[in-house]
Amino acid sequence: MSRKIKGLRTCLYCNKQFPRQELIRLVKVNNKLVIDLKQNLPGRGYWIKPTDQALQDPKLAFILSKRTKCSVSEDLIKELKNETNKK
Fold first, then answer.
1. Closest CA to 34 of 78, 83, 76
2. How far apart are CA 61 and CA 14, in angstroms?
3. What integer pLDDT is reported at residue 65 of this predicted model?
4. How many whole angstroms separate alpha carbon 82 and alpha carbon 11?
5. Residue 55 CB neighbours (<10 A)
6. What phi and psi, each to the nearest 5 degrees, are found at residue 65?
7. pLDDT per residue over 27-43, tens digit each?
8. Does residue 4 have a pLDDT over 80?
9. What is the pTM of this model?
10. Distance CA 62, CA 57 (A)
11. CA dihedral 42, 84, 86, 25 (to 10 degrees)
12. pLDDT of 5 over the 70 cut
């Protein structure tokens, strides 16, 4: 049985674990995903590592929608790209 290391979160895209500082948190609000930059919104957090491979994947919206069971807009993907460029 594996032990969980505190502070690690699993990326929705690649299904690998990373420290939470390397990831962007997403939260489901009214059946839509929103970016939670301050990581303080209530609710279940979903995490994604903003790599070039993930953000350039044309299936990213579909993957996020399928894994979170909510709608994902192309605007969210654009926001993720913008936030990645700011860092």
1. 76
2. 14
3. 92
4. 19
5. 18
6. -60, -45
7. 998 888 999 988 899 98
8. no
9. 0.83
10. 10
11. 10
12. no
